[in-house]
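Minimal example, chain plus PXG.
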Amino acid sequence: MQDMTTDDWRQLDAAHHMAPFTDYRELRAAGSRIITHADWHYIYDSDGNRILDAMAGLWCVNVGYGRKELVDAASSQMAALPYYNNFFKTSNQPVIALSKRLADLTPDGLNNVFYANSGSEANDTIIRMVRHFWALEGKPQKQTIIGRTYGYHGSTIMSASMGGMTAMHEQAATAPDFVHIKPPYGFLYQGNLSTADFAALAASWLEDKINEVGADHIAAFIAEPIQGAGGVIVPPEGYLNHVEAICRKYDILFIVDEVITGFGRTGQWFASQTFGLSPDMMTLAKGLTSGYVPMSAVMIGDRVATRLIDDGGEFYHGFTYSGHPVAAAVALANLDLIARDGLVEKIRDDTGPYLAAALEPLAAHPLVGEVRSFGLLAAIELVKDKAGPVLFDPVGEIGVICRDHAINQGLMVRAVRDAMIMSPPLSFEPSDIDHMVTILAAALDRTLEDITKR
Ligand code: PXG
């Protein structure tokens, strides 16, 4: 393997590897970028490029790459107990310690944890749990789950059906009993409304849907506090509190998917704390282990947990690796690092406001329709005309061009529709942010040149 060239690797990759969310013909023509190693906030590829990772992998490498504490935690746990299952009245010490830690860290009332390996599996678990819960309550007809357009909850049939990505629905992800409402996407829908009026309007879309379907058929409403993969959609202040109140009014479970927003990204340990929410259940993944090993978790509120514990009988659900001891040990070490380095406070007091201020000047760029950020999440909407704003047609081409300019200049960002998306490691420093903004500005200029040339 040592004498393999990058081209050899690319050819083998194209011959045998079907990567996720990939247009295979396109990738085979272009060849993949082979990432060889990573250190702190940079990734390195086999062509010798060093790229600042403003996406933290895929919204997950929150403590940065190369953290020895996480490597050591995995290695010691592998030596002591690499695996044992939690199925038949067995458990392990790291998973017990982690469960207690998560119960303490998450909002009051979330005191029980069910483990899985991905956000998708955690959300599938939630779907089964809430439907089982309502059956135990004597209301088995409460089946329908309300999600939102541009919501992302995973890629299994159920989690993709619950999410609001039309392109995914079109590829065999239309399980029954999921409906969707419009998201609180101010850039598209706010117009001249005040923030308060827009928050009330967007929340009324939930109430309208409940009345259309009938509350006695609805099990739950699920929302990412800030929609991530859908384009970093930051809700207007008050919206999330309104939708929670509507859920209470109609006795519908309120579920928050904190796979991206959890573990500090919004300047509190959880966005539920940032926005003052008391969800019935919460999805966690990604930042739980900073992506070093796979692990996800469902936090279960007391109402649901008590019913399942007292009356549920056996819950016929679980994965070989639910509560994996190595993943749990890494998660504990990761939570220690976040606390020790003061990352949550750093975002709240320092880098969150710094990022917002650093991005603001880009709003004046002729291509930019809106710049928004919250904590360490940010989006820059590219538009054909700032007046309106008028979007590009077709949507999505210009975003990819701009993203590629950024990558070629050493910055990894993501394009969603025609927005540039950032979700850097929580350990990003002001100097990293400055570097990122410099490259973004240059990428915007080059994109504008490309458009002018057309
Ligand atoms: N919920 C949220 C909020 C997510 O962002 C999942 C659930 C699913 O997690 P798993 O571990 O099953 O992937 C996610 C995942 C993108 C992108 O295009 C985002 C995710 C996954 C893949 C691509 O930005 N988020």
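The chain has a mean pLDDT of 97. Residues 58, 118-120, 123, 152-155, 224, 228-229, 257, 259-260, 283, 285, 414 surround PXG (CB under 6 Å).
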